[in-house]
Amino acid sequence: MLKPEIVKKLIKILGKENVFTTKEDLICYSYDSTPHDHLPDIVVAPANTQEIVAIIKLANEHNFPVVPRGGGTNLSGGTVPIQGGLVLALHRMNKIIEIDTDNLTATVEPGVITATFHQTVEKEGLFYPPDPQSMFMSTMGGNVAENAGGPRGVKYGVTKDYVLGVEAVTPTGEVVKVGGKTIKNVSGYDLIRLFAGSEGTLGVITQITLKLIPKPEAKRTILAIFDHLDDAAKTVSGIIKQRIIPTTLELMDQKTMELIEGYIPSGLPTDAEGALLIEADGSAIDVDRQIGVIEQMCKTCGAREVKVAQDATQEAQLWAGRRSAFGAMARSARQVLAEDATVPRSKVPDIVRSIQQIAAKYQLTVPTLGHTGDGNMHPNILVMKQDEEEMKRVDAAIDEMFKAALDLGGTLSGEHGIGLSKQKYMKWQFDKASLDMMKAIKKAVDPNNILNPGKIFLKDE
Amino acid sequence: MELLDKLSEETDKCIRCGLCQKVCPIYAEMRSEPFVARGKVRLVKEIIKGDLEISDRFKEIMDLCLDCGACVANCPATVKTNHLVLAARAKVTSEKGLPLIMKGALHGFLPNNKAQALAVKMAYFYQHSGLQSVLRKSGLLETLSKDLSQKEGVMPEFAPRTFRSMLSDLPLKKSGKIRVAYYLSCMTNMVNPDLGKAVIKTLEYHDCEVIIPKDVQCCGTPHLAYGDTQIANQIAEKNARLLMETGADYIVSDCATCGATLKKYDEMVSNAKGFSDKVYDISEFLVKIAGLRVGKKPVKGVVTYHDPCHLARGQGVKNSPRQILKSIPGLTLVEMEEADRCCGGAGTFNVMHYDLSMRILDRKITNIQNVDPNFLATGCPACTMQLEHGLAQHSMAVPVIHPIKLLAETY
Asked: Are A136 and B22 within 8 A, CB to CB?
């Protein structure tokens, strides 16, 4: 509970209608898309940078945590106010301030919904590639803070590759402005990259300038079915060796296809080890060339069936199965734990096999799909009962999956972040010196540990 | 207790992915978590667990739901948030009771056919005696309250006589290939008797024998919406009995909302076993059962179609009305964007939450404007009232019309 005098001061800063203290409101800001939850003491919805400065100064004065929040759809526990305090709901700051068609940049407030941003720039013939699968709910501020990825990452990179400038309120209540509209910028430390993926621990992002690119003229899709997972993997490296980087290279494993077919039959085989869904984009002529090479490569590498979409309807059909995958999982379990262990591209078959072995060992159902083009796999653990015994097996399995990914030269998280979910694995991936450097940065900019405390690092480490 | 267990299971299905944010019309305007399905489901879960008590804020949050079902349709786990919200409202009503005026409307007025007839006379007098125009011009309503003046604007144009009172003068054919009981909805009765006539004409053109049990009451939707389960069940029991007694093969409704609720009667009351399987929306019935027959007279122009929530998602009927519109000679169906997005009418939602409802409506009107049609077709009287209000506010002279009325013009 915050003292009444603090609440009064917050009301003075934000106005009564933007300060929420009822239990109902607190409950609604106690969770994200993970099973973690914790009640905040208060929720406020600021309208601008100045209000955020005032709130953060107040937090430093009275020593309460501040947790910035966008759509609340992250998969790491990142926006759960685990130590209570104040949730900064940024939905009112949702203006697209400018689309600069001369410099191909856009400047936005943090509460802009990602898909709204996509639609707006695409109307101008421009393209903002990062496409986290929560894009219809996630916000641009959240995307930067979590450094969100998506299927198009293999060709176009992730959010940090598009951030040219950031305005943020620091944990002590100062406003910093770094970067701008220039593509080249090596003045001083690259604080933009520091904010990207900072998970709300180093600053509240209040304005973002993003790089845009011309919208590709055309795109086409191929679905290839493989009896053996290794052949699918060979295909991926084969395509890359032909100097073609597809827009997306999505792998579905056998378990995933079984679930999809049991939910909305989409013509996927349930007796094949894997399927690749490949999309290429570019100029119309070039897309046809790419598709030709990709189709040939799939066949050479032993695909038992290759379907090339000839029009938009067929394209939608090919994607239908993949798009219903999450629904198929959601309705067959009480809880779906979406992990995102990531390995170098060449190690995809190894990690998929490891995941399957671990699932069998702990008697769990773990359909796996992933952005195989960039090695970012999503083993989805289906929690059926959610009782103590099962959760023990789940935890043990997750431990082993991360160990396997790290052993293959991979990383704990490709695009979801550490938050609360992966804190305990940080020391597996990083040596003490690396971890100490990260913590030193946090300590230097947030001496009172105000912003999103209790995340990324474990307390006692 | 059994109900609670069922609801508890429903809340457990939510995996908190947040996909409901994408489609909820209320969330699109409010953009804060309590007003989207994920938040509401969580609150109901806390109530069931006993960690939260019914409060004014809880009621306020549960009241801000259109029951449009968009979240359910878009939910990977198909969590029936609309059912949870209605159950929550029932719990609020059972604990806190209804406001007096609402109680009067739900208990006294809506189920009472005589009261409806009287009200229609008074409303018709108000609208046609010049009183309405005097009041509107005088600015008196606005002086009393801006709110009152706006709400008065949503009021439908009442008919001079109820459809029920005309029934004795209407000769109905005494035979036909299919026996159909036509459920008389409140709005057809009070506001749109012409629709009733068009439905009868159309059904008879399809060689149906039409039976109209005069004593059916309001379908009970308003009662369910305001959490008055007891009265809703009484109504369902009576209506089911009256409609079953006709011995008809099928029961047909021209109102999207009534139809959706009639289709739920078998879950609500014990005397309605097998009843709901016989219920069809009029468009659905013509296309799927009777076999659509269109006349030769053309209706010239462009029509666009608005999907009522309770027809598209409530009953899964999307194609039949479109098929009817497409088959009308001279008429071209042009789809609008987001045709199945709620218009914000939602029964009395537009009266209780006028400003919010109008913001939701604005998006719909823009989508209609982009088509620039001669007719706007829809099969729900609540949508019709809302859309007429929005079109009038934007000075658009587009008639809002039931697909069956357009169809009947071809005969």
From this structure: yes
How does pLDDT run along chain B (411 residues), one tens digit per residue? 456 677 888 999 998 999 999 999 999 999 999 999 999 999 999 999 999 999 999 999 999 999 999 999 999 889 999 989 988 988 888 887 777 666 666 666 667 776 666 666 666 666 666 556 655 665 555 555 555 566 666 666 777 788 888 888 888 888 889 999 999 998 888 888 889 999 999 999 999 999 998 888 889 888 888 888 888 899 999 998 988 888 899 999 999 999 999 999 998 888 888 889 999 999 999 999 999 999 999 999 999 999 999 999 999 999 999 999 999 999 999 999 999 999 998 877 888 888 999 999 999 999 999 999 999 999 998 899 899 999 999 999 999 999 999 999 999
Q: Which domain CATH number covers A281? A: 3.30.70.2190
Name which of A28, A94, A331 is nearest B42 (Cβ-Cβ): A28
In a domain, residue A383? The reply is yes
Whether B243 is in a domain gets the answer: yes
The first and second tokens of residue B245, run together, are 């007694």
In a domain, A116, yes or no: yes
* CA B162, B165, B170, B172 torsion-angle sign: positive
Range of the domain at B109: 101-154
Nearest CA in chain A to B10: A334
| ipTM, two decimals | 0.93
Other CB atoms within 10 Å distance of the CB of residue A371:
24
Secondary structure (3-state) at A268:
coil
Domain holding A224, by residue range, is: 217-323
CATH code where residue B355 lies: 3.40.50
Neighbours of B52 (CB within 10 A): 17
Question: How far apart (Å, rounded) are the C-alpha atoms in residues B325 and B310?
Answer: 19
A430 touches chain B (CB under 8 A): no
Q: Which residue has the tokens 């349930």?
A: A270
DSSP assignments along A373-430, one per residue = GGTEEEEEEEESS--HHHHHHHHHHHHHHHHHHHHTT-BS-SSS--TTTTGGGHHHHS
Helix or strand (DSSP H, E) at B103: helix B100-103
Verify that B198 and B286 share a domain, yes or no: yes
Inter-chain residue contact B57 with A22, CB threshold 8 Å:
yes
Q: Which of B181, B180, B183, B178 is nearest to B207 (CA)?
A: B178
Query: Is residue B295 in some structural domain?
Result: no
Within this chain, do residues A235 and A293 fall inside the same structural domain, yes or no? yes
Q: Chain A interface, mutation test: which of B10, B14, B19, most A Cβ atoms within 10 Å?
A: B19
Helix, strand, coil tally for chain A in percent (to 5): 40, 20, 40
Pick left, alpha or beta for residue A130 (phi over 0 → left; psi -120 to 50 → alpha; otherwise beta).
Answer: beta
